[in-house]
UniProtKB/TrEMBL annotation:
Residues 24-395 form the Major facilitator superfamily (MFS) profile domain. The chain crosses the membrane at residues 23-42, 62-82, 89-108, 120-140, 147-166, 178-199, 220-241, 253-275, 282-301, 307-331, 343-360, 366-389. Keywords: Membrane, Transmembrane, Transmembrane helix, Transport. Its main location: membrane. The lineage of its organism: Bacteria, Bacillati, Bacillota, Bacilli, Bacillales. It comes from Alicyclobacillus mali. CDD domains: MFS_YfmO_like. It comes from the Bacteria. The keyword Transport applies. InterPro entries: MFS, MFS_dom, MFS_trans_sf, Tet-R_TetA/multi-R_MdtG-like, YfmO-like. This is MFS transporter. It is found in: Cell membrane. The keyword Transferase does not apply. It is a multi-pass membrane protein.
Length: 402
């Protein structure tokens, strides 16, 4: 396994390079935007699905759980697949799978069917997003930092547009958002097929066990576990948050659109500045603490719609900063190749965080509407503790301009 260059040194001119990219980068970035729409797309229509298909909150939250569980499990196989059929065909296969299963989700007649098709969607999502970052890094102009920022911008834009699209289409029928994603993914498929050229062939074939061996590096394991517990807060906010709002689909869509816009802006512009000025670990401690406080306030004022809307939107700023910084940290955490590090990290955070939405639904029904936010807050506090315990393993990770 080859050691990676010092990613910290690559951020010198990252922001100036981000827009000067060739067509293949924009093709993959567009497909990334659409892929990440799938994460927040179902937010505004969760109450409608629950009501019209006579499902409990916990049953409906399985739409998130199946999606993330399959995504996380499949992450460890993506390197094995992409080094055999090539990055381009891995991306196209992932997009094709998403198109099929998102369309089938729209044709469903029960929550169980949607949950199953969302799992299939997660399979395609894993093949796509695990490969997309390494492809963008390979073909982008400028530094790896430019590619990471562009990837995070696509993530933020997709997450922000997803709820808005879901809310707008969901006003007419909960089925339409699924059809909308299938249509947009088909456009992304064509864009990747036509414009993605010049991706270097893998130098060697990756082993299925490589991501698991990578987790033997305690630095990478620390970041994975930090993200696992952080995701208890993240996916509680994303998956359970629409219920206590008691708003229409379009109202929920606009709320999470504001959340996603802040996430996108802070991931591109604020995160690099904070990390360069204060360092990666101090910023992560602070941001995670602020996010935990945000969730605590949501739990304490769960019956105040205005408070919930403000806290949801504000959380976008915290998540945007943390996502960019922790992705940068993962890329230099261990002496393994970037796709392997990404797969190992994503496996831990997605599989572990998959239980959060389902647990939130259960706690809401059994205890009360505030309890999921308190548990999400506790999860983020545990993430801070994990990061603190493993801090000595992360001292080599730096984020400096010069």
């Amino acid at each position: 396994m080859s050691a990676q260059p010092d990613v910290a040194q690559e951020f010198d001119h990252a922001e100036s390079n981000i827009l000067r990219q060739p067509a293949p980068v924009w093709a993959v970035a567009f497909a990334c935007v659409v892929a990440f729409m799938g994460l927040g797309l179902v937010d505004p229509i969760l109450p409608a699905i629950s009501a019209q298909l006579h499902a409990t909150k916990a049953q409906t939250e399985l739409l998130f759980t199946s999606y993330m569980l399959v995504t996380g499990c499949m992450m460890v196989f993506t390197g094995f697949i992409s080094t055999r059929i090539g990055p381009k065909y891995t991306l196209l296969s992932g997009l094709a799978i998403i198109i099929v299963f998102s369309f089938l989700a729209g044709r469903s007649h029960s929550v169980g069917q949607i949950v199953g098709f969302r799992g299939g969607w997660g399979l395609g999502n894993a093949m796509f997003i695990a490969t997309a970052l390494s492809v963008i890094v390979s073909v982008a102009r400028g530094t790896a930092a430019s590619a990471i920022i562009l990837y995070e911008a696509a993530l933020g834009l997709g997450i922000s547009v997803g709820p808005l699209l879901g809310g707008t289409l969901g006003e007419h029928s909960w089925r339409y958002p699924f059809y909308g994603v299938a249509t947009l993914m088909a456009i992304g498929f064509v864009a990747v097929l036509l414009f993605l050229r010049g991706v270097p062939k893998p130098a060697h074939r990756a082993s299925i066990t490589a991501p698991f061996r990578a987790l033997g590096h305690l630095s990478l394991l620390t970041l994975g576990l930090t993200s696992l517990f952080y995701n208890f807060g993240f996916f509680t906010l994303l998956g359970y948050g629409p219920y206590p709002l008691h708003m229409s689909a379009i109202g929920i869509g606009y709320t999470y659109f504001g959340w996603g816009i802040l996430l996108a802006v802070t991931s591109v512009f604020v995160a690099p500045w904070l990390a360069e000025k204060f360092g990666i670990l101090p910023v992560m401690y602070t941001i995670l603490a602020l996010f935990a406080l945000d969730l605590l306030v949501m739990g304490l004022f769960v019956h105040s719609r205005l408070t919930l809307v403000i806290c949801i939107i504000l959380a976008g700023a915290f998540l945007g900063v943390n996502n960019t910084i922790i992705t940068t940290a993962v890329m230099q955490a261990a002496p393994v190749e970037r796709p392997t590090a990404s797969a190992a990290y994503s496996f831990v955070r997605f599989v572990g965080g998959a239980v959060a939405p389902w647990l939130a639904g259960k706690l809401s029904d059994a205890v009360g509407p505030a309890m999921p936010f308190f548990i999400g807050c506790l999860g983020v506090v545990v993430a801070i503790m994990v990061l603190w315990i493993g801090r000595n393993r992360l001292r080599h990770i730096r984020y400096v301009a010069h």
